[in-house]
Description:
With 190 residues, the chain is an all-alpha fold. It contains eight helices and no strands. It holds the Pfam family Sigma70_r2.
Amino acid sequence: MKTDSTDEKALLKGLALNDRKSVETIYKLFYNMVQTLIINNNGSTDDARDIFQETVIVLYEKAKSGSFELNCQLKTYVYSVSRRLWLKKLQQQQKFLPAVNGLEDTVPVDEEVEGHSQRNSEFQMMEKALLHLGEPCRSLIEAFYLQKRSMTDIAGHFGYTNADNAKNQKYKCLMRLRKLFFAEFKNNNV
């Protein structure tokens, strides 16, 4: 299936708006290409699914930013991002030890992939820090930041006398979480 630049722009716009049909179209157009790339380079179908999912996330983040300007075919961009993500994964698994060379023939996507990988790594470290935080801190932080509950609601739920006491406890929990996160960060970057 061939796409023109108008169709590609519409796909990117749909992707940025979480349009299911756009995501399905991207999948139909490019998944087999990515799967072939991964399988031909020491990967499995599960690896291909993972890499394609990460590629779609990178593409989504770029499309959502509003400042993304596609200056090649979408197929080329998807291939380049997928290839870069796969090579990075192979390096991490030490299946492919030499430096990644020969990417000049593809679209330069290093920054997007590096940014995505960095955010992914930081989210994993934050998740570990949250797991080590313990109760009631973890639940309090999740209630405020993830569930978007008010401090008054949190105070009632956790048994604090008022919203100010809950806010004070949240601050103490955040300081503990921060300490755990940076300890994890230091361990990963040693």
